[in-house]
Amino acid sequence: MLKQIFKKIIIYLLILESKLTLKKYKPKIVAITGNIGKTSAKDAIFTVLSSAYFVRKSEKSFNSEIGIPLTILGLPNGWSDIFVWIYNIFDGLKLIFLKNHYPKWLVLEIGADRPGDIEKISKWLKTDIVVITHLPEIPVHVEFFKSAEEAIVEKGHIMKTLKDRGVFVVNNDDKRALTLKISVEEKKIITYGFSNNSDIVASNEKIIYKNNKPKGISFRVDYKGNSIPVNINGALGKQHIYPVLSAMAVGISQGLNIILIARLFDEHETPQGRMKIINGISNSCIIDDSYNSSPAAAIEAINTLNNIDCGGRKIVVLGDMMELGGYSMEEHIKVGKLTGEIADILITVGVRAKYIAQEANHAGMKERNIFQCLDSESAGDKLIDIIEEGDTVLIKGSQSMRMEKVVEKIMTNPEKKYRLLVRQEEEWQNR
């Protein structure tokens, strides 16, 4: 009870300080939401804007009613340390009453885990650019909403933050995201996607190989007569192309040159746990997608694995997809069917993932190639036993399944886990 009261007081004070800070320094703000690709888009947009401006972005996935004020104020997460939160309040006051070198741009990731999350934020935050990534049919966290449609409506509340002369950047391949266009004047919209009628069009997606292993992806971008090659190193899938396109749209809206923008991604570092390529034991290749999972994201990841041509076996390690409510069994079955058609070996983690295993078997995968584990540690041990040279291993699951532990078990250099893997903070390690 006291803990909840303290939390409410802290949130109230941080939001108050954030309002005063925004009023004092008047930064421009990009707000990003969607069910897939928010963090990747945030990082890509930061890469573009920081080439010309002083920019601050949300750390990790600071996308909640407490994470957003922390980003605005440039403060750390206090987790369960009451003294850090008290220091944060005082540091926020210093920002208001003393002169500071403050960013010209803030790039904010905004999430919606529960009904009202974004609507509450929209009451005090005003933005210059809104970016919508992807709104799939069955969104993550759907079990906390009355329906999938209500979850999508909650994401749509972000449009209330957009200033009258703001810019709306939207995924043109996503029909649900496009429904939000009706609240914006046509001249203030920039669309992106693989659809030919997008303002910024992607095409010719290819996997780049080195020493018979995937190294990254390449594609072309067409914009107003320019056709530009773009390379992304160290990651795979359209999951990383869409964020780059959204970042290009943001840069173009601010008068930056698209050819110069494209070059920025030669050195761009994609976020951990999102289709990240990591060297594995026995000369294997790990596709680390362990940050989180949802039906649409899992299917996209498996389809990406299907496009990899390295000659070795394709192993899929899938953990439970959480927070799907009444959609859970059906969506796990869909993922299982696709896995059975594509993968050579399947390892599942968790009680819900048993439906993935069962359906993979029904889809044609031999029972001897399916292994069911209760936790990520045992899944990692099983992988060590069966992995062979040239295997490509896709690892994915919801946050609570801690699938990064599977990656750690089979990565060539586990001492690099703090740089390469998600959830390496002390708070996570103590759970």
What does this entry look like structurally?
With 431 residues, the chain is of the alpha/beta class. It folds into two domains: 2-264, UDP-N-acetylmuramoyl-L-alanine:D-glutamate ligase (3-Layer(aba) Sandwich), CATH 3.40.1190; 276-423, Mur ligase, C-terminal domain (Protein-Tyrosine Phosphatase, Chain A, Alpha-Beta Complex). Helix content is 38%, strand content 22%. The protein contains 16 helices and 15 strands. The protein has helices at residues 2-25, 38-49, 67-73, 82-97, 117-122, 148-156, 175-178, 238-253, 258-264, 295-307, 328-342, 354-362, 376-386, 404-410, 417-420, 426-429, and strands at 28-33, 55-57, 105-109, 127-132, 162-171, 189-193, 200-210, 213-223, 226-233, 276-280, 284-289, 314-319, 345-349, 370-373, 392-396. A nine-stranded mixed β-sheet has the order 2-3-1-4-5-6-7-8-9, sandwiched between helices. Helix 1 (2-25) packs across helix 3, helix 11 (328-342) crosses helix 12 and helix 13 (376-386) packs parallel to helix 14. The chain is globular and about 65 Å long.
First and last CA, distance: 22 Å
* Largest sheet properties: 9 strands, mixed
Which band does the percent of strand residues land in?
Answer: 15-25%
Low-confidence spans: none
Give the strand line-up of the largest sheet. 2-3-1-4-5-6-7-8-9
> Can you tell me the overall shape?
globular
User: What is the count of β-strands?
Assistant: 15
Task: List the domain count as a whole number.
Answer: 2
Give the CATH superfamily of the largest domain.
Answer: Mur-like, catalytic domain
Helix content: 25-40%
